[in-house]
UniProtKB/TrEMBL annotation:
The lineage of its organism: Eukaryota, Metazoa, Chordata, Craniata, Vertebrata. PANTHER family: MAJOR FACILITATOR SUPERFAMILY DOMAIN-CONTAINING PROTEIN (PTHR11328), SODIUM-DEPENDENT LYSOPHOSPHATIDYLCHOLINE SYMPORTER 1 (PTHR11328:SF29). Belongs to the major facilitator superfamily. Pfam families: MFS_2. Residues 1-20 are annotated as: Disordered. This is Sodium-dependent lysophosphatidylcholine symporter 1. InterPro entries: MFS_2. Coiled coil: none annotated. It is found in: Cell membrane.
Amino acid sequence: MAKGEGAESGSAAGLLPTSILQASERPAQVKKEPKKKKQQLSVCNKLCYAVGGAPYQVTGCALGFFLQIYLLDVAQVGPFSASIILFVGRAWDAITDPLVGFCISKSSWTCLGRLMPW
């Protein structure tokens, strides 16, 4: 807050109730603008977003589960190697997803939208 905006310097006017202050000590009433109510998503909208993301999560979990079984039982890869294979994939995604998102958000608009011709 800048000096002189909304704060009384050197007086107790802001600390005491206005009923016990003298007329000369009462702070000037500042007309406040009504606060705008934030638009929040309804429960129905939240559920619709959750249902839309569920197939992606289910396929990701199923793929991870069955890939682990495949690597251990069918391909006869050791448990440490199988976990390293799965971890490297997740770590690669953790690095490349934000990087690609940043590159797309910083690219200029083309006739196809905000895409870079790679």
